[in-house]
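Supplementary notes for students who missed Thursday's class. We covered one full example, reproduced here. Read the sequence, then the structure, then the short commentary at the end.
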Amino acid sequence: FFTMSEAENEVYVRRLLLKGHGYPVYGPKPDNCLPQAYQDRGTSIGDLVIITNDGTIDFLFSICLPSDHPINANRTPECFEMVELDTSKDLSLMEDWHGIDSSIASSSVQKKSLAAHAAVAAPSEFAILHLQDGADRQNLRHLKKFRDQAQRHAKDWYVPYRHANATMGREISYDSLYLVTGCDKSESWGIASYSDTSGDSEVSLNWTA
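Structure (token representation):
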């Protein structure tokens, strides 16, 4: 990855937000310090998370799992209330939403090939996510369930000296928390971003299986 004028994760987020696929997480791999059950599952609908300054996910707890679930153990606030979802009515799942060897890239990227070895060239700034194995998409349809939960408990989630700050030791601001309502999941991915304010340039990238 390349960085010249600013952090590569900032370029990545700014450029790929414009593509309309939700919040582009620069470091989606689960934290190795989290419970193995969470590492196996990955970020999912109902997770309350913080997007860190380096673009990774800081998982707090899931509102869609019981407080005694291995993923939530010793992580939920005293006011915790689980949200039950009916998978047949409240969720949507689209397998292979992103096809094999597909890419999501800023408009400045010129794709020269899309195979196990992928190459791109771009001018002064770009971001790209390459999905060698494609990706599935899952979204929450019953948004009201999450909205009602947030209205009841948001203050306890992250008002200073409440759960996220006092109990879990996070020093966060009011705009730091995200409640996941959808996600794209893949077995493998390649991420890159580049910024050079000195003028147009050409950069080539290759992904190897």
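Commentary. Residues 8-195 form one domain. The radius of gyration is 19 Å. If anything here is unclear, bring it to office hours.
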